[in-house]
Amino acid sequence: MTFKTRLLPGAVFFCDGGILELAGKHLVLGLTGGIACYKIAELTRLLIKAGATVQIVMTEAATQFITPVTMQALSGRPVYTSQWDARMPNNMPHIDLSREADVIVIAPASTDFIAKIAHGRCDDLLSTLVIARDCPLLVVPAMNRQMWQNPATQRNVAQIRADGVEVLGPDSGSQACGEVGDGRMIEPEAAFEAICAFFQPKIMRGQRVLITAGPTFEPLDPVRGITNRSSGKMGFALARAAAQAGADVHLVAGPVSLPTPWGVYREDVQTAQQMHDAVMAATPDADVFIAVAAVADWRVDHVSEHKIKKAAGQPLPAFNFVENPDILATVAKLSNPPYCVGFAAESGDLQLNGMEKRKRKGVPLLIGNIGQLTFGRDDNEVVLFDESGTTPLPRADKQELARTLIAEIAKRAPRTGGPLLS
Ligand code: CTP
């Protein structure tokens, strides 16, 4: 089955300092019977907050778990539950609702509903709407682990995948029935992330991207250490944008309290040496390396085993510092390096220092932060330094800026993966 291409360029709108990532997108969100229906209240709220319009359609079974009144209040639109609903002027809700949609999302998708999709059965509004669609279909399964493992279910899931349906999840863990295993619905935040990713052009499909993010922490003793004000937001935003662009992303993160972006493999480290070791182990598999971390340049040569005590009349503690490895420069100097991108935090002349730093690190692209107040903020302003000179980019929300930067990197990095766009 072929669908008309709906992967639109990532138009993003701003609102109250946040970004409306799904502005202009219209989704049909179909609920089928399952306890995970409660998660769809939150998913709907996230979609609406991101600027999407959401048309809720519910099966009869879904209405046993959450009421159409709740879903109407959250989506701000009347809910459809019946094939015989006379509200559509031509009395064909299955055609009209599906024609308006950029995507149909079935969440939660029950065992029975997946079987219906696999076999092309349509005996209610939602299943009829699915078979009458001319847009992509995303399915978010939710069921008991035995139902999920049943060979019939596995056959049906394989069949719908082969038919071009995207299946999101399921998760593993404790289930409403008290059992533990595969089958629970992915969390609403994860479903939201996957829907956002669905709308992004896959300009990095097949590329393997290694990213460092956050600060490092260099211990002085068991309780104290040296770190910096990096929040990790820019690096995590780049990881999210690269994953949304179809890349296989490995994120090496210093100590930050940020959630892992959807679809990103994360490795947590503390010190610069640990970050170096993690990066060197992952580099042979990487096509692109983006060093965003604010790596501590020095560490003490001897970390005290016990907490350093202050005692009256004693001299202040003195530390000997040794240099940490320069991770970016080390990777850039490898005989067959990935495409390397550095970041620069400067307090002096950015233009001069940026050009010099790019040469010193031996990287094709360096991104300079304009101003010193970027740490912890939600927006940023940068300038690109490459072989053709400098390109300033306008101040933007870090997530939006990350998309622009991933597009700039995708333009420059040699392609090793599959086709550019799906
Ligand atoms: N970097 C790194 N390893 C280090 C230091 C920096 O990988 N030990 C990377 C950073 O992730 C960033 C780039 O190098 O991409 C520049 O970092 P920055 O702190 O701006 O520069 P430094 O190399 O530390 O030089 P200086 O502090 O003298 O400006």
Describe this structure in words.
Its EC number is 4.1.1.36, 6.3.2.5. GO terms for molecular function: FMN binding; metal ion binding; phosphopantothenate--cysteine ligase activity; phosphopantothenoylcysteine decarboxylase activity. It comes from Caballeronia hypogeia. Helix 1 (37-49) links the parallel strand 3 and strand 4 (53-58). Helix 1 packs across helix 8 and helix 9 (233-244) packs across helix 13. With 422 residues, the chain is α/β, with parallel strands linked by helices. Residues 1-17 and 418-422 have low confidence and may be disordered. Helices cover 30% and strands 23% of the residues. The protein is elongated and about 85 Å long. Cytidine-5'-triphosphate binds at residues 212, 272, 291, 293, 295, 297, 324, 326-328, 342-345, 361.
Topology at a glance:
Layout: E1 13-15, E2 18-20, E3 26-31, H1 37-49, E4 53-58, H2 68-75, H3 93-99, E5 103-109, H4 111-119, H5 125-131, E6 137-141, H6 145-149, H7 151-162, E7 166-167, E8 171-174, E9 180-184, H8 188-198, E10 208-213, E11 218-219, E12 225-226, H9 233-244, E13 248-253, E14 264-268, H10 272-282, E15 288-291, E16 298-300, E17 321-323, H11 327-332, E18 339-344, H12 350-361, E19 365-369, E20 379-380, E21 382-386, E22 389-392, E23 396-397, H13 398-412
Parallel strand pairs: 3-4, 3-5, 5-6, 6-7, 10-13, 10-15, 13-14, 15-18, 18-19
Antiparallel strand pairs: 1-2, 8-9, 11-12, 16-17, 19-21, 20-23, 21-22
Helix pairs in contact: 1-2, 1-8, 3-5, 4-7, 9-13
The chain binds cytidine-5'-triphosphate.
Cytidine-5'-triphosphate binds next to helix 11 and strand 18.
